[in-house]
Request: fold
Amino acid sequence: MKEYLEIQKPELSYTYEFGIDQLSLMSECLEAHGFAIIKDVLSPELVDSLKQAVFDGTDPKRELKPGESRTRHAWVESGPGAWQLLEHAPFMKIHRHLIGTEEMTVHRSAAIIRMPGSQPVSWHTDWCGFSTDTPKNSGDVLNRGLWPSGKWFYLTGSRPEHGGLCVIEDSHVENWKGPEGFKMTGDRRSFYKEGEAEKAYVGFDIPGLVPLFTNPGDMIVFAHRTYHGAFPNQIDEIRLSCAIGFRSRDHHIDIPWEIPEEGKQFLADLPPQFHQYTQGYTSIDLAWRG
Reply:
């Protein structure tokens, strides 16, 4: 247990924490090292409201037990609690900067609840663009763009003992070979120790690992290829996180599934001022297989 509890905030040779007024510097760090933290994007009041929205959209009956985790995909479809972010000026300013346009479409969204005792998340990259084969599932269809992947709020803070996020610095570069002493899996979505079976790695003895320490109002950003994982939740506190990501409206995705009923209801219920962000919205069908 102590191998996680004793992890301290790293002292790196470069700055990776920025204010909302330092987005150009943030982008330079993101391009150079594959990740960045933007401080104080959310107010304490908005953090509290989003915590409730995560529960409402992910575990409304509060049924999760110790050791369990649950992810709500297409969390933006859960209702007005999530839509608060669409009218939060600092949040939208960041996305306009990251995507490089005012004309954006909601691309992916999610909320995650990790109960005390929940297990670590194995190392992986969200990007599915390594393969040119026919997509195998809906995530494979949607995760092939070059825009930043991670844009997360850890609403209860990110720290190692609480299931916090960790990244591998500089792992976002094209043709990255993996950490020293490891081999890439066949699909390049993860890596494993040399001499061991090919399986996404779960340990934290990795060269280049950077544990991320954030406050509830901070935003974590990482590049589309950045490899990341999460520590186990070892304290008696529920971990809550959420994200809404965008792509340029010009990037059309011809989805091979019909938008689920929940997605159609979302589009029907969304207030008119947000319709500009749903042109070309795809939703997600987790049951679809190519």
Q: What stands out?
A: The chain has a mean pLDDT of 96. The chain has one domain: 2-277. Residues 2-277 form a domain with the Jelly Rolls fold (CATH 2.60.120.620). The helical segments are 2-5, 23-33, 44-58, 80-83, 89-99, 138-142, 261-269.
